[in-house]
């Protein structure tokens, strides 16, 4: 494919791209020419998944590809991250495009011919490894976009940084990683983009569709840990101690009012969920303490901090009302911040998404309660992060195996859709497409 696609790309480079923004068909033709390669990369990466901060093979594949395109490549950023800048032949804006490369500790259950058989050690256990979140597709798509843009380099206005990021799902225990670590290691020190774009494939949308949402789009995700300390006693003599189980039950009950009574959920939703309760060993012993862990999801930094304060307050005051004490680590671990799509940038690029895949195939999505560390980039630079449907037509996206499932299945037409959408957005931005409707 490399040789046969070259004339087309050269033709595209010579086409009147400099005079006007590239038309839909140009992008479609470039995407079509690259499709066999993108498919092959995706399948290869899918068959050889690697956990966060261990994306050695994937990073090497990406780096070799970018070097072959004639780019200067930085490797080893945030352990295994790769970045390269393509400098167009004409002056213009600086932008960045980002893909994530990591897989998950999931044992694949699909019967695809290129299904993963890989295993790795995760938290001391041997686990299956699978691209159950579609990051294989993201990596392959961005490799394709890089090749398409490199083929148009002479007529391209501006500069594009390609970011291949490790550990989006979080680094292994005790390690740093992901988007915040790439930024901490100076990713944007010498190259500050004025906009950044990224995409994610999701089972919740049909293949062929692109989803977007202006403003807050994906949740901040934070963990909490609360230990309610009482005083151990015989189950027959509760007055001989302090019962942390009843205090914990009361605490969980009252914590429900943070969402239902205290936060303005008419503006943005909030979720407070307890995921585990641990306390006690025997039917007739009231234990010394109870541990509660859970997650908080918010879409606004102010609400995020307010919920932290509310839950700490509930934990401490309710425990005190029972004569117990609470050690409330809220948050215990600060997770990804809210992912906010810049409203002006989203409005400006929406016509590009519509042009790339057809207006009928672009839908505004609900708020996504999941979290995504692209949010860290979006805090630095105006960002647009959009969603690409993965579920085959004829299957219900509501019941299709979701991202992170061992049965997660990507309709490979999503590769073409993702490539066209990202390429169109990139070219339109670089060529100075005017603000959209
Ligand atoms: Ni993901």
Secondary structure topology:
Blueprint: H1 2-14, H2 24-47, H3 56-68, E1 72-77, E2 81-87, E3 90-100, E4 119-122, E5 125-128, H4 135-151, E6 157-165, H5 178-184, E7 195-206, E8 210-212, E9 215-218, E10 220-229, E11 233-234, H6 244-262, E12 271-278, E13 285-286, E14 289-298, H7 301-321, E15 325-333, E16 339-341, H8 343-357, E17 362-364, H9 374-380, E18 383-391, H10 413-430
Helix pairs in contact: 1-2, 2-4, 2-10, 4-10, 6-7, 8-10
This protein binds nickel (II) ion.
Describe the protein.
With 437 residues, the protein is of the alpha+beta class. Helices cover 35% and strands 27% of the residues. The protein contains 10 helices and 18 strands. Strand 4 (119-122) and strand 5 (125-128) form a beta hairpin. Nickel (II) ion is lined by residues 133, 135, 168, 200.
Descriptive tags:
437 residues, alpha+beta, Aminopeptidase, Alpha-Beta Plaits, 2 domains, eight-stranded mixed β-sheet, four-stranded antiparallel β-sheet, 10 helices, 27% strand, disordered N terminus, binds nickel (II) ion
CATH architecture of the largest domain: 3-Layer(aba) Sandwich
CATH topology grouping of the largest domain = Aminopeptidase
Count of helical regions: 10
CATH superfamily membership of the largest domain, which one? Zn peptidases
Q: Provide the number of structural domains.
A: 2
- Under CATH at level 1, the class of the largest domain stands as Alpha Beta
Bound molecules: nickel (II) ion
Poorly predicted runs are 1-20
Report how far the terminal alpha carbons are from each other: 39 Å
Question: Beta-sheet strand percentage?
Answer: 25-35%
- Biggest sheet, open or closed, and with what strands and sense? 8 strands, mixed
Residues in helices, as a percent range: 25-40%
| Mean pLDDT across all amino acids | 94
Topology as H/E string? HHHEEEEEHEHEEEEEHEEEHEEHEHEH
């Amino acid at each position: 494919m490399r040789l046969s696609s070259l004339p087309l790309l050269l033709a595209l480079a010579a086409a009147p791209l400099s005079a006007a923004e590239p038309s839909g068909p140009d992008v479609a033709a470039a995407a079509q020419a690259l499709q066999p390669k993108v498919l092959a990369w995706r399948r290869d990466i899918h068959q050889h998944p690697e956990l966060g901060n261990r994306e050695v093979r994937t990073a090497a594949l990406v780096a070799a590809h970018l070097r072959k395109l004639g780019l200067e490549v930085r490797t080893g950023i945030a352990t295994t991250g790769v970045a390269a800048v393509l400098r167009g032949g004409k002056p213009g804006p600086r932008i960045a495009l980002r893909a994530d490369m990591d897989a998950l500790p999931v044992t694949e259950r699909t019967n695809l011919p290129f299904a993963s058989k890989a295993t790795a050690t995760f938290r001391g256990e041997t686990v299956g490894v699978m691209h159950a979140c579609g990051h294989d597709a993201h990596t392959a798509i961005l490799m394709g976009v890089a090749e398409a843009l490199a083929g148009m380099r002479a007529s391209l206005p501006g500069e594009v940084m390609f970011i291949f990021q490790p550990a989006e799902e979080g680094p292994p225990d005790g390690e740093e990683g992901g988007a915040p670590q790439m930024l901490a290691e100076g990713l944007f020190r010498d190259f500050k983009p004025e906009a950044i774009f990224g995409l994610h494939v999701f089972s919740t949308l049909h293949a062929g569709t692109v989803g977007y949402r202006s403003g807050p789009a994906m949740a901040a995700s934070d963990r909490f840990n609360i230990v309610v300390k009482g005083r151990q006693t015989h189950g027959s003599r509760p007055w001989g101690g302090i019962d942390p189980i009843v205090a914990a039950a009361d605490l969980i009950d009252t914590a429900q009012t943070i969402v239902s009574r205290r936060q303005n959920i008419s503006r943005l939703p909030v979720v407070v969920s307890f995921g585990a309760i641990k306390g006690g060993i025997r039917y007739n012993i009231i234990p010394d303490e109870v541990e509660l862990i859970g997650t908080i999801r918010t879409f606004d930094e102010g609400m995020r901090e307010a919920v932290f304060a509310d839950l700490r307050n509930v934990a401490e005051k309710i425990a005190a009302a029972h004569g117990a004490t609470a050690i409330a680590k809220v948050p215990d671990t600060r997770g990804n911040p809210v992912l906010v799509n810049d409203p002006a940038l989203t409005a400006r690029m929406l016509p590009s998404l519509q042009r790339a895949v057809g207006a009928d195939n672009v839908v505004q999505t609900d708020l996504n309660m999941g979290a995504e560390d692209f949010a860290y980039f979006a805090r630095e630079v105006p960002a647009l992060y959009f969603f690409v449907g993965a579920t085959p037509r004829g299957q219900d996206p509501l019941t299709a195996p979701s991202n992170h499932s061992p049965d997660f299945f990507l309709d490979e037409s999503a590769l073409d859709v993702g490539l066209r959408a990202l390429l169109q957005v990139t070219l339109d931005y670089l060529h100075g497409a005017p603000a959209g409707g």
